[in-house]
């Protein structure tokens, strides 16, 4: 405690000592000042100062000693037991509160998991009558009615599919199977699924696949392509969508380019945010703001980088940049 007391006051102690030595130095250098009387005065000043420190020590350390006696209730003794009954009570209350919070968290997690499982089960159940409905629509003779019903059926199907992948995406790492995926088969399958919508809007496709093999997960890559195609069709009118795959810098790239309304430059930094919709077309109630968010979430574990370029009223180009095989090996070995 003495050492701590002196260390806390070392600045003004040093000031006082230096001041006394300065007085002695001046008396020694200046012959007009008698040195011995000055030395005597300095000695008395030092004794008085030392006495002052000694007298003040018990008064100024009394508060700190009180704090030491009342140490933190959370501090335990060397054998792991609280130092006092008061500390035991405080520790027990903290322990009880922690356990109660942990139980609440666990219960909430179980509730969320149960609700997610129920929703996934409901989506799968809804798909059965939806498939039946599609078969019934295919048997209609009225082409105009058939086209309208097919379009509405497709909208429901896409919304359910998006919701299904939204619930699955939290454990996507457990659902990945990386393999060589045939881009040609995957792209044509997704285009065929969206065919009725494309016909209704007068949209065609210009497909230029220079590279048809990529390393990815077929199911989740199909979902990513589906979201990009859906966006391109939704925001385009009577134009072609260009799908182009090529190799650049030892990486395969897949471009989906439309000539629709494009994206405002101020919206570009936020397009992958959850729930974000266009600020220029904010009255568009058909946009959920989930498609690109889920696309980004699905692409990340697949090590797919998404690049995007867009100009208002000129169209948008999304580019999927696929990883090399070594990138997956490095990820697995980490």
UniProtKB/TrEMBL annotation:
- Pfam families xrefs: HATPase_c
Where in or outside the cell? Cell membrane
Q: What biological-process terms (Gene Ontology) are attached? A: cellular response to phosphate starvation
Q: Which PROSITE patterns match?
A: HIS_KIN
TM segment ranges: 12-29, 35-55
Report domain Histidine kinase positions. Answer: 121-326
Which InterPro entries does the record associate with it? BphY/WalK/GraS-like, HATPase_C_sf, HATPase_dom, His_kinase_dom, Sig_transdc_His_kin-like_C
**Reaction(s) catalysed by this chain's protein:** ATP + protein L-histidine = ADP + protein N-phospho-L-histidine
How does this protein sit in the membrane? Multi-pass membrane protein
EC annotation from Swiss-Prot or TrEMBL: 2.7.13.3
Top-level division of the source organism's lineage? Bacteria
Molecular function terms from GO = ATP binding; phosphoprotein phosphatase activity; phosphorelay sensor kinase activity
Which terms are listed as keywords in the entry?
ATP-binding, Cell membrane, Kinase, Membrane, Nucleotide-binding, Transferase, Transmembrane, Transmembrane helix, Two-component regulatory system
Instruction: State the SMART domains in the record.
Output: HATPase_c
GO cellular component entries? plasma membrane
Give the protein name, as stated in the record: histidine kinase
Protein's organism? Paenibacillus terrae
């Amino acid at each position: 405690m003495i050492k701590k007391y002196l260390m806390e006051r070392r600045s003004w102690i040093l000031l006082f000592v230096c001041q006394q030595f300065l007085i002695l130095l001046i008396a020694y250098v200046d012959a007009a000042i008698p040195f011995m009387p000055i030395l005597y005065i300095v000695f008395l000043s030092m004794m008085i100062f030392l006495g002052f420190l000694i007298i003040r020590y018990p008064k100024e350390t009394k508060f700190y000693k009180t704090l030491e006696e009342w140490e933190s209730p959370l501090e335990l003794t060397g054998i792991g037991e609280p130092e006092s009954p008061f500390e035991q009570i405080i520790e027990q209350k903290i322990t009880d509160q922690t356990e109660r919070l942990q139980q609440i968290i666990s219960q909430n997690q179980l509730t969320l998991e149960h609700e997610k499982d129920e929703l996934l089960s409901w989506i799968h159940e809804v798909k059965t009558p939806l498939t039946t409905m599609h078969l019934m629509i295919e048997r209609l003779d009225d082409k105009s009615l058939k086209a309208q019903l097919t379009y509405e059926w497709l909208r429901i199907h896409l919304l359910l599919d998006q919701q299904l992948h939204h619930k699955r995406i939290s454990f996507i790492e457990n659902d990945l199977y990386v393999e060589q995926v045939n881009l040609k088969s995957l792209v044509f399958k997704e285009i065929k699924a969206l065919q009725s919508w494309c016909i209704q809007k007068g949209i065609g496709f210009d497909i230029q696949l220079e590279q048809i093999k990529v390393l990815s997960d077929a199911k989740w890559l199909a979902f990513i392509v589906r979201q990009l195609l859906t966006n391109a069709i939704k925001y385009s009118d009577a134009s072609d969508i260009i799908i182009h795959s090529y190799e650049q810098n030892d990486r395969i790239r897949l471009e989906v380019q439309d000539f629709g309304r494009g994206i405002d430059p101020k919206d570009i930094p936020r397009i992958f945010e959850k729930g974000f919709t266009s600020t220029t077309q904010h009255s568009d109630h058909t946009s959920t703001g989930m498609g690109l968010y889920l696309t980004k979430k699905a692409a990340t574990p697949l090590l797919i980088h998404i690049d995007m370029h867009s100009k208002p009223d000129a169209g948008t180009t999304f580019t999927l940049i696929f990883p090399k095989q070594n990138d997956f090996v490095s990820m697995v070995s980490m």
